Structure formats: C-alpha cells, structure tokens
Amino acid sequence: xxxxxxxVKPNARTGERHTWKDRERRRKEERQRMAAxxxxxxxxxxxxxxxxxxxxxxxxxxxxxxEQAKKARRWYFIKQKAYGLAMxxxxxxxxxxxxxxxxxxxxxxxxxxxCLFQ
Length: 118
What we know:
Elements: H1 20-97, H2 105-117
C-alpha cells in the first residue's frame, strides 16, 4: 500500500492524517478570518473615532452655551446698574425741574439704589 502524497503526521487528538491540500485550505480560511477580523477592528476604530468627534463637538457646544449664558448674565447686571444710575439722574433732574419738590424722590431714589446695589 502506497502513502498519499505529501501527508503529515497524524493529528494528536483524532489520529487523522491530513493532506497538504487540507493544510492549505485551513491556511486560506485562517487568512480570510484574519482579514475579516481586521475589517471589523477597522470599522470599530472608525465608529469610535466618529463618536469621539461627536462628543468633542457636543462638549464644545455646551461650553459655548455656558459662556453665552454667563455673558448674558453679566450684561443683565451691567444694564441693571446703568438703569439704577439713570433713575438717580432722573431724580436729580426732576427735583431741579420742579424747583425743589422732592416728592418724586420717595419712589425713584429707593428704586435706583436697589438697581445699583442688588
């Protein structure tokens, strides 16, 4: 009885003999599997990168909104102080225009001071 061409030693577990073609087929399958895994890894990398960019944009937008809200609050208080000062100036002008009648000051002075110091 003649041996098959290019046989390998029996498999330790099963005792089967494998031909050279079987080994080549397994190597080809292994290369295909590794190529598929590489594609999966590349796809996962791309998704991870896209998620990181999306997170970065979201945080940038949140930071911009926080800064915008902070700026709006600061301008609110600047305007409030300007209105308080204007109220006191109007009081002085009203007292001067009415030749010393300070009745208007009963309302405008407390209101102007509240706007200035709050």
